[in-house]
Design goal:
Blueprint (H helix, E strand, L loop, with lengths): L6 H16 L7 H8 L4 H13 L3 E3 L7 E3 L25
Antiparallel strand pairs: 1-2
Length: about 100
């Protein structure tokens, strides 16, 4: 299924899937989402998540910070054709 995502939205979706795989199904918080795709402010990550939800790529449970369900994650390709995985680390990923 194609959601017609922008590059930033696709990056966010790949980051969420990778984070969930790397952390036993645990979704990233808003700050981790922002840092994971190079967004400076949580508000930008929040808008990106809202758009992903509006497009039907994810579902979020109200009132829960780490409650992101990726819908149809099999159809999320990466640039190289392999899924991306989040790698925890102390570095700053902002451009």
């Amino acid at each position: 299924m194609s959601y017609g995502l922008t590059p930033r939205q696709a990056d966010m979706l790949r980051f969420i899937v990778g984070h969930q795989r790397a952390h036993g199904g645990k979704s990233p918080c808003l700050r981790e989402c922002a840092d994971g795709v190079g967004i400076r402010h949580r508000s930008g990550a929040h808008r990106t998540l809202q758009e992903l939800e509006r497009r039907g790529a994810i579902r979020r449970l109200p009132g829960r910070e780490r409650a992101i369900e990726v819908l149809n994650p099999i159809s999320i390709p990466s640039i190289e054709g392999e899924p991306l995985h989040a790698v925890p680390g102390p570095w700053d990923v902002r451009p």
